[in-house]
Amino acid sequence: MIRVLLVDDHAVMRAGFRMILESEDDIAVVGEAANGTEAVAAASALSPDVICMDVQMPGMDGIAATRALVTARSEAAVLIVTTFDRDDYLFEALSAGASGFLLKNAGPEELVHAVRVAAAGDALLAPEVTRRVIRRFAGADAGDGDGVRAENRPSGGSLASDRPRLGRMSAPGPTTAATPAAPAVELTDRETEVLRLVAQALSNAEIAERLFIGEATVKTHVSNVLQKLGARDRVAAVVYAHRHGLT
Length: 247
What we know:
Blueprint: E1 2-7, H1 11-21, E2 27-33, H2 36-46, E3 50-53, H3 62-71, E4 77-82, H4 87-96, E5 100-103, H5 108-119, E6 124-125, H6 127-141, H7 145-149, H8 189-199, H9 204-211, H10 215-229, H11 234-243
Parallel strand pairs: 1-2, 1-3, 3-4, 4-5, 5-6
Helix pairs in contact: 2-3, 3-4, 6-11, 8-10, 8-11, 9-10
C-alpha cells in the first residue's frame, strides 16, 4: 500500500486528490496538511511514501518544505503538484530535492501514475518539462543566455494524453550542466541503446519491456552509463544524448 500525504492550502483541492487516489486499491491517503510547516510535522509523524506538495501556501511554501524534508532525511518522495507552469518553481523544486513536477491540469490517471512512479523510487517530469530542463542545462553549458531566457515563454502545453507518459529524471544539481562527458566515452551497444531510451523519457520498467530484459538489468546498464559519462543523474545523461546525436 502506497501511503500518501496531501499538502495544499485549499481544502477542496485536497478532497479532490483524496477521492482520486483512494479510488485505487494500492493507495491510501494517510494525512493532510495546509502548509509547509504542517507538512514537515505530518511527514515525521505519519511516514508517508509520497507527499503531493503544492508550492504557493501561507507560511512555509512547498519548496521550503521540500528542502526541510530533505534536510531532515525524510524518506518520502516529494511530488510537486502546482497550478503554475513557471520555470522558477520547476528548477527551485528540483534543486530542493523534489522527485517530480506535475501540473494540476493533469488528468486523474496521471496523478495516480505519478504517485506510483514516485513511490517506486523513480523521479518524473512531464514531457514538455523534460524538454525545458534539457534546454536549460544544455544552454547553460554552452553559455547560451538566450536559450535560458527562452524558458520564460508560456509553453501552452497540457499533460493530457491517451495514457500517462511522464519522463522520469533525477533532480539536477548545480553542476549538472557541466557533467556530460566528452564524445570519446565508449559505451557498449546495449548501453548506447539504453541511453537512447532514457533520452526518450522512458522509465526503467518501460526500457525493460522494450528490450525484453529484466528491470534489474536495465538499472545496472543505467548505472554503468552514468558512471562512464561522469554524469551525476539522468538529466545529465539526457543532455549528453541530445548533444551527441543519440536521439
